[in-house]
Structure formats: C-alpha cells, structure tokens
C-alpha cells in the first residue's frame, strides 16, 4: 500500500520544543514526528490486515499513536519499542472489532456505478488476490490472525510475537501453522479458479 497515514495529535510543550522529554527510559531523545514516521506505515498495514474497515483505518491508527504519545514516558524498555507499539495496536484493534458500529452497514437504494481506468484494470488480479487474502484472514480466529499478520506480514520474530500476545512460544507456532494452512489452501483454490491470461 503506497498510502501514507496522517495523524493529528494535540501538541504538548515538549512537542513544541521538538523533542520528547528526557525522562523517557530506554529510548534516545527524538521527536515524536520521527517515531511516527518510522512506525506508522507498518502499523497502518497491520491495522488493515487485522480486519479494520478501510474507512476506519486512519482513525484506528491515530488512536494507536495517541496512546503511544500518552504512554511513551512510561515505556520501560523490557521489549523493543516496535514490539511495544504492536502490542498497543493489537489492543486497539481488538477494542475496535468489539464495537457495534463495525457491523452496521448503511443501506442504499441503488448500487453506485463503479468507474475504473485502464491502470486499475491491469491490476484486477492483484486486487482480487488481496481481497481473497482479506477473506481468508477474516476466516481465522483472532489469535491465529494476529500471529499470521505479525509474522508473515510485519516480519516480527516468533519470540516477539509470543511476548506481545503473552502466550508460550509453542502456542504461537501452533497458531501460525494453522493460519498458514488455511491461507495457503485458500490461495491455492483461488489460483486454480483464476482464468489463465
């Protein structure tokens, strides 16, 4: 995804000065903007892959970074900063998925016409593959989906994932194995149905 997430945060005195306070344990002083720029694209992709509706991705990402901004001074360095941010992301996404507004749909009398240009038509197969992957990820349990997204898409180590999820390493591996099987089988079925070009 080439889209760059945006974020609007309330400014604090330390932000105005351009640096995080010196009391941040285990983290070098740097601006919150730098931290956001470094982690936001990965968090945006993770949030999307964890089942947040397209229309809500930006809001969920913003909520993640508002929490990161608010709690950064309490980060103790027991894990990497990246792992800590992914842990916050999983909690925010879990809260989002529990909310009733996620399942409400707005009904319209007539389906709007879809307009596509030639460039979009050339990527139909790629979009269909992503749609198929999204459907397969939706079919996984939340635990399996989290492990699959964090390992396969976000490239975290299994030790980091087990730490984020607070589960034994072997449990994380078991969830990954089941998720991989479901995704591989589903993608193979999709490829077999695709007409050859």
What does this structure look like?
The chain has 197 residues and is mostly helical. It folds into two domains: 1-104, Rna Polymerase Sigma Factor, Chain: A; 126-191, Winged helix-like DNA-binding domain superfamily/Winged helix DNA-binding domain (Arc Repressor Mutant, subunit A), CATH 1.10.10.10. 61% of the residues lie in helices and 0% in strands. The chain is built from nine helices and no strands. The chain has helices at 13-16, 32-49, 57-71, 81-98, 118-121, 124-139, 142-153, 158-165, 169-193. Helix 2 (32-49) packs across helix 3 and helix 7 (142-153) crosses helix 9. The protein is globular and about 55 Å long. The two termini are 25 Å apart. Mean pLDDT is 79; it is low at 8-26.
Instruction: State the helicity in percent bands.
Output: 55-70%
Shape: globular
Q: What is the terminal separation in angstroms?
A: 25 Å
Number of domains as seen in the coordinates = 2
Task: Describe the protein's topology.
Layout lengths: L12 H4 L15 H18 L7 H15 L9 H18 L19 H4 L2 H16 L2 H12 L4 H8 L3 H25 L4
Helix pairs in contact: 2-3, 2-4, 3-4, 4-8, 6-9, 7-8, 7-9, 8-9
Compact description:
By secondary structure, this protein is an all-alpha fold.
Features:
9 helices; 197 residues; Rna Polymerase Sigma Factor, Chain: A; globular
